[in-house]
Write a structure and sequence with these properties.
Blueprint lengths: L3 H20 L13 H4 L6 H14 L3 H5 L5 E3 L8 H4 L8 H24 L7 H26 L21 H15 L14 H16 L8 H13 L9 H4 L10 E5 L42 E3 L1 H5 L7 H5 L3 E3 L4 E5 L2 E5 L4 E4 L7 H7 L4 E2 L50 E5 H15 L2 H16 L10 H12 L5 H7 L3 H8 L1 H6 L4 H4 L6 H5 L12
Parallel strand pairs: 7-8
Antiparallel strand pairs: 1-3, 2-9, 4-7, 5-6
Length: 552
């Protein structure tokens, strides 16, 4: 059973109850239902507090700019001469308030769960396991939120108690202290988490996956523990368990009707019922242009959805897909199909378009001149070298002229997040995968590599490659760049690319090689840009105790 079934009816009530708690000194309102926080929350309803923490996770995993801009695999859809602070590191001063506020929302709700479970709810002996389980989920999700924050901002404010009054004096803990607390929370949570909970709950294996990632990240730090990489590898092995990712194809993993599959360790839940936020997942549109502006694709009938973020893959990303890599077909729409009857006319003729006809085609390899010209009498074709802003030149004598295409940035849009219940402007209801076992293998590969165990690193990266290509033992040697490339292929649009480049020390090198806007005019400075700026709004709320990161 999906946890979203509880999200549907508890989130609004919980917000109302928490609202009573925070505002009762200002308002004296009659409560005709006689439902109060104190009377509603008891051991029979306590789980609704935990469900509220899961609801807060939705906002955390919509912070796409912090995940993809300014990396080797993604850049902006704008002309090469344009500027985007988050992508190009030019005049980067703010823009990460969503990362901060959404993760602290999770932390605040998790703290409330821990406090109420430990201090305010009267538990019967028969429900002590439920008490421990609720606290374990809250600690695991709190640790995940702090881990999201520390990777982006460095040391942040460690708040471990439920907020009972306004405070203007909070200050940042060190990065080392934050990692210690994250590890403590996860290690305390794991024994009481369930191995196979309802789908959408934070499981024991999901916590082991996160803790493996935490130890891997700390292993690169000046305050690393002596055995961080070997500990990470062992935890990753535990999270993988007996599951063989080759038991289902990459296509099956992303089949819309197979979202509750065994490879998914943790996902953010959505549903077509309930509150509007339950059917408001916008991930379908994160790597696409405004598709309905193509001739023949009508806005309200298109199953491609609507653009929700202005990133696009870099040329280098496309080159990573070899001919036998099945992830290409799952990741991209290389042909977009008409959803309405219409026609297109240029100086060289008219093409009549029927529903289901190809409107635009993105070949994986460059077509010959003869084949290109033949196809340009049927639909637009954008060659790999033309996956950019206004890059293609008109071809004399063919019907489809590039200069008449109103969409100036053309590239294969993402298919892997396609939401069949999202037409045109409607929100999506597809779940967002947060952790998959394939990523756990790549964490294990990285941890083993850094621990000096190359044979185990090879075993883990090769199993991921084998599932995608059918080739056994593709890698005979392995480097960190191999792992980064395999992560790009396997986890594009899923895992936080910026975080992984930062931790491996490869961010500056790879953006200067592969991000076209950075190459053209980027101003990345490792002394500044390996940390994000603390949101200015947060600084203004304190009495000066919250310090900004260097250089901002």
């Amino acid at each position: 059973m999906k946890i979203v079934k509880k999200l549907l009816y508890t989130s609004s009530l919980l917000s109302l109850l928490f609202g009573f708690s925070s505002c009762n000194s200002y308002l004296e309102e009659e409560n005709p239902s006689e439902i109060t926080e104190e009377s509603y929350i008891d051991e029979s309803t306590a789980d609704e507090l935990v469900v509220g923490v899961y609801a807060a996770e939705r906002g955390v995993y919509k912070q796409y700019g912090s995940m993809f801009y300014g990396t080797d695999m993604f850049t902006t859809q704008d002309p090469l001469y344009s500027y985007n602070a988050s992508n190009d590191y030019v005049n980067l001063k703010d823009g990460f308030s969503g990362v901060w506020s959404n993760n602290y929302s999770v932390i605040s709700k998790a703290n409330a769960v821990i406090n109420r479970y430990e201090n305010e709810i009267a538990w019967s002996d028969s429900n002590l396991e439920a008490k421990a389980y609720g606290i374990a989920q809250a600690k695991g999700l709190r640790a995940l939120a702090y881990y999201n924050l520390v990777q982006q901002f460095g040391g942040v404010v460690l708040y471990l108690n439920e907020i009972a009054s306004i405070d203007f004096t909070y200050a940042r803990s060190t990065e080392e202290e934050c990692f210690a607390q994250i590890i403590k929370d996860l290690e305390e949570a794991i024994p009481d988490l369930e191995s196979n909970p309802d789908f959408g709950r934070f499981s024991k294996r999901a916590a082991q996956h996160v803790l493996a990632d935490v130890y891997t990240t700390r292993g690169y730090k000046s305050f690393a523990g002596e055995n961080d990489f070997t500990t990470a590898a062992s935890l990753a092995e535990s999270a993988i368990g007996s599951y063989d990712i080759r038991s289902q194809s990459y296509a099956e993993v992303f089949d819309y009707d197979n979202q509750e599959n065994d490879e998914v360790l943790f996902s953010i839940q959505y549903s077509e019922n309930g509150e509007i936020d339950d059917r408001n997942n916008n991930k379908q549109g994160i790597i696409q242009n405004q598709v309905y502006n193509y001739i023949g694709i009508e806005r309200t009938t298109s199953t491609y959805g609507e653009k929700t973020f202005s990133a696009m893959p870099t040329d280098y990303f496309y080159t990573l897909f070899e001919d036998n890599d099945t992830r290409d077909d799952v990741t991209f729409f290389r042909a977009l199909l008409a959803t309405e009857e219409t026609s297109y006319t240029s100086d060289f003729g008219t093409d009549y378009i029927s529903v289901g006809d190809t409107v635009i085609y993105y070949p994986k390899s460059t077509l010959s001149t003869a084949e290109l010209n033949e196809r340009l009498n049927k639909y637009w074709v954008y060659q790999p070298e033309d996956y950019a802003y206004d890059a293609a030149s008109d071809v004399d004598g063919v019907i489809y002229q590039y200069s008449t295409n109103s969409i100036k940035t053309n590239f294969p849009i993402f298919k892997k997040f396609n939401d069949v219940n999202s037409n045109g402007v409607d929100g999506g209801i597809r779940d967002t995968y947060v952790f998959r076992v394939a990523e756990t293998h790549l964490i294990a590969a990285e941890a083993y590599l850094q621990a000096g165990n190359t044979s185990e690193a090879l075993a883990h990266i090769n199993i991921v490659r084998e599932r995608a290509t059918g080739v056994v033992d593709y890698y005979s040697s392995v480097t960190i760049d191999d792992i980064l490339n395999e992560r790009a292929l396997e986890l594009a649009g899923e895992s936080n690319r910026w975080n992984i480049l930062k931790r491996t020390g490869k961010l500056e090198e790879r953006i200067n090689l592969y991000n076209p806007h950075v190459v053209n005019h980027g101003e990345f400075d490792a002394s500044i840009h390996l940390l994000r700026p603390i949101p200015s709004g947060e600084l203004e709320l304190t009495d000066g105790s919250l310090e900004q990161n260097f250089g901002y």
